[in-house]
Design brief:
364 residues, mainly beta, Neuraminidase, 3 domains, four-stranded antiparallel β-sheet, EGF-like domain-containing protein, LDLR_classB_rpt
Length: 364
């Protein structure tokens, strides 16, 4: 099943209506770094509409993270070797650190930002406001790639899609102030804006629409060996490591996930407690438990309806609608799969655009 929600990007400045940012701002946007043409940071609804440029006049922003508490964006810039920040409207832009050898991966937690540096082979942290109190968290790391902090404070909310898929027959897409039902390619949305009807001669197929019911399940224990309640994940080319984020003296451990070849990006699903990663060698997205069990290729080689080779670059999970958003270098698009692996479709694709780093803010 596939659906194309946007196949032509609007010119910069087409959508310019902005709501004043405050603590009651309804979110549900996706943000990405754009490498096509002039580099920029872009925002859109999670259905691929209402695209606006938030930040321009920057180099190639390699990684992007959101401070949900203070409603700010942070990014690493490969060309200027800086870490910069702005509010969620792209305003109040600040330089957090400007003397970094080669910043690469980036995440945020509490009062700090954490980043990986290719030249220093390290993970460092600093005050998220001014870049001071810089601390070496881990050194002597070869090919350290992406980095991610998991903690309930990083994102705690809900949206309508988490309850019975928003009563949508096929796809529920969270947007500011609500949600929108959509249908896969070859299907049209009925007049009730919920159900889908097949068009032409295509055969309707069974669609699973039952979604998870209770947000507290995200953070409750399920018996047996309990995982840490908050931790930091970082990837090297052939390993994914975990360490306790609040205990600097805690050593990192290499998770027993086998067959890692070139881990380019990582994400985490707190409901099913699964780690997702981009395998740059095989150009697939895989997942597994932290003990290496239940391995699965979620995005794999093209099928008969997808002839073009995929090359995933970054990924982000909408835990509420149980979907995986990912950017593709070969098609220069933002795509969506269900966490079960089922392909949903393309939410953004443009001839002159090259989306790379990706972050979601799907909560209400």
């Amino acid at each position: 099943m596939s659906v194309i929600m946007l196949d032509k990007v609007l010119p910069a400045g087409t959508s310019t209506y902005l709501i004043k940012c405050n603590q009651y701002l309804t979110l549900r946007y996706m943000y990405w770094t754009e490498w096509g043409g002039k580099p920029r940071i872009v925002r859109a609804y999670m259905d691929g509409t209402n695209i606006i440029t938030l930040v321009d006049k920057l180099g190639r922003a390699n990684d992007l993270t959101i401070d949900y508490a203070d409603q700010r964006l942070y990014w690493t810039d490969l060309d200027t070797n800086m870490i910069q920040s702005s509010n969620l409207l792209g305003q109040d832009r600040e330089i957090i650190a400007d003397d970094l050898p080669h910043p690469f991966g980036l995440t945020q937690y509490s009062d700090f930002i954490y980043w990986t540096d290719w030249n220093l082979h390290s993970i460092e942290r600093a005050d998220k406001v001014n870049g001071k109190n810089r601390t070496l968290i881990q050194g002597r790391l070869d090919f350290v790639m992406d980095i991610l902090v998991f903690h309930s404070s990083r994102q705690d909310g809900t949206n309508e899609c988490m309850q019975n898929n928003g009563h949508c027959a096929q796809l529920c897409l969270a947007v500011p102030n609500g949600y929108r039902c959509s249908c896969s390619s070859h299907y049209t949305l009925d007049s009730n804006h919920k159900n889908c009807s097949c068009t032409h001669y295509y055969v309707f197929f069974y669609f699973i629409k039952k979604m998870f019911q209770y947000l507290p399940l995200l953070f409750s224990g399920g018996g047996g060996l309990k995982l840490p309640t908050n931790f930091l994940l970082f990837s090297q080319k052939t390993a994914i490591n975990r360490m306790l984020v609040d205990e600097q003296q805690s050593p990192d451990i290499i998770l027993p996930i086998h067959g890692l070849r070139n881990v380019k990006a990582i994400s985490y699903d707190p409901l099913d407690k699964l780690i997702y990663w981009v395998d740059g060698r095989q150009n697939v997205i895989k997942r597994a438990k932290d003990d290496g069990t239940q391995p699965l290729a979620v995005v794999s080689t093209p099928n008969q309806s997808q002839t073009q080779e995929k090359q995933p670059h970054d990924l982000s999970i909408d835990v509420y609608s149980r979907t995986l958003y990912w950017t593709c270098e070969t098609t220069n698009s933002i795509n969506v799969n269900r966490l079960t692996g089922e392909y949903v479709g393309v939410v953004l694709r443009g001839e002159n655009d090259k989306p790379r780093a990706l972050a979601l803010n799907a909560e209400r």
